[in-house]
Design brief:
Elements: H1 5-8, H2 16-27, E1 33-34, H3 46-58, H4 72-86, E2 96-99, H5 102-113, E3 119-124, H6 129-136, E4 140-145, H7 161-166, E5 167-172, H8 185-197, E6 201-205, E7 231-236, E8 249-253, H9 255-268, H10 274-285, H11 288-311, E9 324-328, H12 336-347, E10 349-350, E11 352-353, E12 364-368, H13 373-391
Helix pairs in contact: 2-12, 3-10, 4-10, 5-6, 5-9, 11-13
The structure holds pyridoxal-5'-phosphate.
Pyridoxal-5'-phosphate is lined by residues 38, 101-103, 127, 173, 177, 205, 207, 236, 238-239, 244, 249.
Length: 392
């Protein structure tokens, strides 16, 4: 029996060791606090849940196979949202496709644009799916380091010419997971100009567009004139509307790229459950109160995390977006993995080691803000004890 090279060559799952410790601790009855995972703890708003219940009960047509590229009503609603939110003119039939979560769109997109042997430019540290999509397509991932001294933006000038000749696709993600960095329109203008010069397609993952603080407004890469020639963007309802479990997102942008993605999807899956699309229409029509409420919750949590870190002599810039605080591992620990495992073993607190997001994440760790307030406070108290102990 053979297992395909693309599977056996996939990078080792770097959270596996932490997961093993987690299960051991849980079996022993340890009260674990998970500050590792980025998954909103607040439930989906009632108005969306209620719409869903009503639709499932009263619209049996939604129980049948969905349209491959999403219901036309959902696509129109998504396009109207993009117009209101980013002033984009996106054609709902030609330039937009519904996704079963943006993870699905990311994983499939390399199949739509990269041939085996092509290079896919992947940020590092990053959400692991960009790398995986290149591997699944038989393409060659090339890592673009996101370094603190560059504000976690890739340095395009550092990519060698022989790589650029073979590069067909670049993934970007701002506001960024895991570094919490943001990008402004001048960065996106540079990225689009670079992509055009080298005949590269950009897939921008805008999953955290609404998880922004202190008045920061995250842009769309498609606001850049000419971006519609070579870019697509992914927008997910997961984070802004606490809908991670529902699996609903959409891709939009360059028409031929969207058509190619639609073709991959038509060959591999159906669209999202139509009832979920209809409930999502309600969410897209009235997102503001939910988003404002979530911003308040995350801002307060962020401020508590930053204040504690500061009091412990671990200063860290206050993030302007995302669900994460990203900071250096205290110097007495040899690696992010060693730090995370020691914290888990000693205090039952889980944080994500930076190396789990790629080699350039080494030396950092990530605290997620998606834990209920009292548990976050308890987790921070334990982190304080751990750091004070480990210093002495
Ligand atoms: C959470 C997250 C997403 C959202 O994925 P969905 O599949 O839409 O739930 C996408 N990209 C990044 C970087 C994320 O952290």
């Amino acid at each position: 029996m053979q297992i395909a090279d693309r599977i056996t060559s996939m990078p080792k799952y770097l959270f596996a060791e932490i997961d093993r410790l987690k299960w051991e601790a849980r079996a022993k009855g340890v009260d674990l606090i998970n500050l590792g995972v980025g998954d909103p703890d607040v439930p989906t708003p009632d108005f969306i849940v209620n719409a869903m219940v009503d639709i499932v009960k009263n619209q049996p047509a939604t129980h049948q196979y969905p349209e491959y590229d999403g219901d036309p009503a959902f696509r129109r609603s998504a396009a109207a949202y993009l117009k209101k939110r980013f002033s984009l003119d996106v054609h709902p039939d030609k330039e937009l496709v519904a996704l079963i979560g943006s993870k699905e769109g990311i994983a499939h997109f390399a199949l739509a644009v990269a041939n085996p042997g092509d290079v896919v430019l992947v940020p590092d540290p990053a959400y692991p799916v960009y790398y995986m999509s290149a591997v699944l397509a038989g393409a060659e991932p090339y890592l673009m380091p996101l370094l603190e001294e560059n504000d976690y933006l890739p340095d395009f000038a550092a990519i060698p010419a022989h790589i650029l000749r073979r590069a067909r696709l670049m993934y970007l993600n701002y506001p960024n997971n895991p570094t919490a960095a943001v990008a402004d329109l001048s960065f996106f203008a540079k990225a689009v100009a670079f992509a055009k010069e080298h005949n590269i397609v950009i897939c921008h993952d805008n999953a955290y567009a609404e998880i922004t603080f202190d008045g920061f407004v995250a842009p769309s890469i498609l606001e850049i004139p000419g971006a519609e020639d070579c870019c697509i963007e992914l927008y997910s309802l997961s984070k802004p509307l606490n809908m991670t479990g529902w699996r609903i997102a959409f891709a939009y942008g360059q028409e031929k790229l969207i058509a190619a993605l639609r073709k991959v999807k038509t060959a591999t899956d159906s669209g999202p459950f139509t009832a979920i699309q209809f409930a999502a229409i309600e969410g897209l029509a009235n997102p503001d109160a939910t988003i404002a409420g979530m911003r308040d919750i995350y801002t307060a949590r962020r401020d508590r995390v930053i204040a504690l870190l500061k009091s412990l002599g671990l200063p860290c810039a206050s993030p302007r977006a995302s669900l994460y605080v990203w900071l250096r591992v205290p110097e007495q620990f040899p690696s992010s993995q060693a730090f995370s495992m020691a914290l888990l073993a000693s205090q039952g607190v889980i944080v994500s080691p930076g190396v789990g997001f790629g080699q350039y994440g080494e030396g950092y760790f990530r605290i997620s803000l998606t834990t209920p307030d009292h548990r976050l406070d308890e987790g921070l108290e334990r982190l304080r004890n751990f750091l004070l102990e480990s210093k002495s």
